[in-house]
Amino acid sequence: MSQDNIFREVDEELRSDRMRAFWRRFAPYVIGAAIAVVALVAVNEGWSWYHANNAAQSSDELYAAFDLIDGNDLPAAQAALDKVIADGSGRYPTLAQFRKAGVLAKAGNTAEAVAAYDALANSLDNIRLRELALVLAGNLLIDNGTLADVQSRIETIATEGNPLRNAAREILGLAQYKAGDFAAAQTSFEAVINDPMSQSSARNRMGYYLAQLLSEGVVTAPAPAATADNAANAIDQIVSDDAPAAETAAPAAPATTESAAPAAPAAPAAPAATTEAAPALQ
Q1: Following DSSP, what letter does each residue of 97-118 receive, concatenated?
Q2: What's the burial of 251, exposed, middle or buried (CB within 10 Å: 0-12/13-18/19+)?
Q3: TM segments (predicted)?
Q4: Tag placement on the chain: N or C end, fewer CB within 10 Å?
């Protein structure tokens, strides 16, 4: 055996001894870390399964409560909703709380329903859900509370930029009408009509309300801007800013044909008539 082979074998033996010593020293930590990773993965998967299973169960229980409500079995529906509120997972308890307040109102327990909506408005972390609870409470208080009760809940919601502004304006207007503040009610209804984002069904309802105010003689005729046609025309002008330019450019065509057809000098008068009539359509 050559001297090089001897040195090589000794070197390999030393490396092997160092690896065995390293493994004996750090093996418990390596094995422990591997077990911890496996345990964490197992716990996470188990929790995800448990949460998904509970969410599915909560969903089934909530829909079962909805069926009871549709069947007008309100006591059983309340018991089912209470179970979801107590034991449900995810957002299902919150949905059950909203529905329970509606069931209380349907059963004639208006004060309890308003209290339930107020509790939701004071406890939820989502601002839109809080505002929804206030709007629903305000809706119940139109016939069961004072104008101050309604205003304290929804007056700050009936402002520009709020997604629920038109629902709040309608409720506020009805409460103002009930309280005898007819001018304020007219303003609230017209604000819904003049909002470009209002749906046609909402505009129609506001039109009925304003017609009722006019028929009772408690308000004067609404301002010209407060009509559904003007609101629609305002949207059209926003969408197509070049519409007036097209109208004024129309009379130029007859002028070019004047030399070719001198026998018909009255032809250019037609565009002028149409441009004068256009504002009347608005």
Answers
A1: HHHHHHHHHHTT-HHHHHHHHH
A2: middle
A3: 26-50
A4: N
